[in-house]
Amino acid sequence: MDWLCAEYVADEVMRTGGLVAPGSLEFRAGMRTLALTVLLDGRGPDGWLRRTAYDHPWSSWVGGRLAASVPHTPAPDLALARDTWRRLRATELRAADLAGIAGARTVDEDRQVWLPAWRLGTALAHLALHLY
User: What is the DSSP string of 5-74?
Assistant: First the structure.
């Protein structure tokens, strides 16, 4: 039930933010990334904002939390979270190279790169939280 609640909250935040179309791959990446953050952090929107910030090592934080088994989280919810994390790592999305990931010194919004879904998801989740 914890996972379903986390997904519900993440879906509401992403829909309210209105950054990408619901049902799109980008929306699902943001929603799943935020759902993991909600489940594993639990401190509320301020904590989720800090976790999804650009300079936060989100992927290593999630991996560490899931490896350590989150206290008071039922095994079925952890299984769903682990499966979601596996899918976010395995899926890549084509997006603008806003962070200069491809090595460009200047930001070129027309330049597209392949990013892990979680990387785009953290940016979208963070922006959606600001708009919520």
Answer: HHHHHHHHHHHHHTSS-TTSHHHHHHHHHHHHHHHHH-S-HHHHHHHHSTTS-HHHHHHHHHHT--TT--
Q: Which two tokens stand for residue 68?
A: 């350590």
For 33-90, what is each residue's pLDDT tens digit? 999 999 999 789 999 999 999 889 999 999 999 998 777 889 999 999 999 999 999 9
What gap in Å lies between CA 74 and CA 96, rounded to an integer?
Answer: 38
pTM: 0.90
Residue length of the chain: 132
Position 69: which residue type?
S
Residue 115 is given by DSSP the state E
Q: How many Å apart are CA 95 and CA 12, to the nearest integer?
A: 23
The candidate with the shortest Cα–Cα distance to 39, out of 90, 87, 5, 64, is 5
